[in-house]
Write a structure and sequence with these properties.
Residues 5-76 form the TACO1/YebC-like N-terminal domain. It comes from Microvirga guangxiensis. Keywords: Cytoplasm, DNA-binding, Transcription, Transcription regulation. The protein is α+β, with helices and mostly antiparallel strands. The protein has helices at 3-13, 16-19, 21-38, 47-58, 63-72, 105-119, 148-158, 179-190, 210-225, 240-247, and strands at residues 82-89, 95-102, 122-124, 133-141, 162-166, 169-175, 195-202, 206-207, 229-234, 236-237. It folds into 3 domains: 14-74, Orthogonal Bundle (Arc Repressor Mutant, subunit A), CATH 1.10.10; 82-131 and 204-247, 2-Layer Sandwich (Alpha-Beta Plaits), CATH 3.30.70.980; 133-202, 2-Layer Sandwich (Alpha-Beta Plaits). The strands form 3 sheets. A 4-stranded antiparallel sheet has the order 3-1-2-9. It has a 4-stranded antiparallel sheet with strand order 5-6-4-7. The chain has a two-stranded parallel sheet with strand order 8-10. Helix 3 packs antiparallel against helix 4 (47-58) and helix 6 runs antiparallel to helix 9. The protein starts with a helix and ends with a helix.
Length: 248
């Protein structure tokens, strides 16, 4: 997924997930609570909640933490989060989408704007860059569950539209309305996926030079580390040389 996938792989190889484990759990818990509040607290009856729980399990979040997050949805703790999408341009004009959950819109908007400005980019109006992305379903499996050909065959049979298989795993894309159906079919064959969710997939990824690429990755990392930010997507592609440099 261009900037998003490359960023995720770099952070994984750098051990970034372990360094911010508590922050990761906090974001996952927030998504679980919001999903449970919006629908039923039963993941079998609430696709968004089920997706949130899958993501939590993939990060080895303890069962007790997951259950506490679900229970908070029916409590009266006063926590209410707004879901907001920010769109902007990073260094080199790369398009970036930021999804956030916040209990203070002004604080979050100010922080996100400052990250874009400091990087040499700028925050834009909602809709300014999202037309360059498609909203699609996304299912992720580890590389060890199947070889590329087997995964491709199973995914197409399940109704998926595209599969990207690398040494890091399998990324399956489908129409957003088919996400639950595709996930269920693949889960029956390969077991529980690492992720099943809606994402922003760039229509035409744009290659950037290494200097711009480093600036973009710093911006992505700053955004990702903000407490209110749930997901960050970009439409840029890094060179293999820069990928090696940043993970080596």
């Amino acid at each position: 997924m261009a900037g998003h996938s490359q960023f995720k792989n770099i952070m994984h190889r750098k051990g970034k997930a372990d360094a911010v484990r508590s922050k990761v759990f906090s974001k996952l818990a927030r998504e679980i609570t919001v999903a449970a509040k919006m629908g039923m607290p039963d993941p079998n009856m609430n696709p968004r909640l089920r997706a949130a729980i899958l993501a939590a399990r993939a990060e080895n979040m303890p069962k007790d933490n997951i259950q506490r997050a679900i229970n908070k949805a029916s409590g009266n703790d006063g926590e209410n989060y707004d879901e907001i999408r920010y769109e902007g341009y990073g260094p080199g004009g790369a398009a970036i989408i930021v999804e956030a959950m916040t209990d203070n819109r002004n604080r979050t908007a100010s922080d996100i704007r400052s990250y874009f400005t400091k990087s040499g980019g700028n925050l834009a109006e909602t809709g300014a860059v999202s037309f360059m992305f498609d909203r699609v379903g996304y299912v992720e499996f580890g590389a060890d569950v199947a070889d590329a050909d087997s995964m491709l065959e199973a995914a197409i049979e399940a109704g998926a539209e595209d599969v990207v298989s690398t040494e890091n795993g399998h990324e399956i894309y489908c129409e957003q309305t088919a996400l639950n159906e595709v996930t269920k079919a693949l889960e029956d064959k390969f077991g529980e996926p690492k992720a099943s969710k809606l994402v922003w997939k760039p229509q035409t990824p744009v290659a950037v030079d290494d200097e711009t690429g480093e600036k973009l990755m710093k911006l992505m990392e700053s955004l990702e580390e903000h407490d209110d930010v749930q997901n960050v997507y970009g439409n840029f592609e890094l060179s293999e040389a820069l990928m090696q440099k940043m993970t080596g």
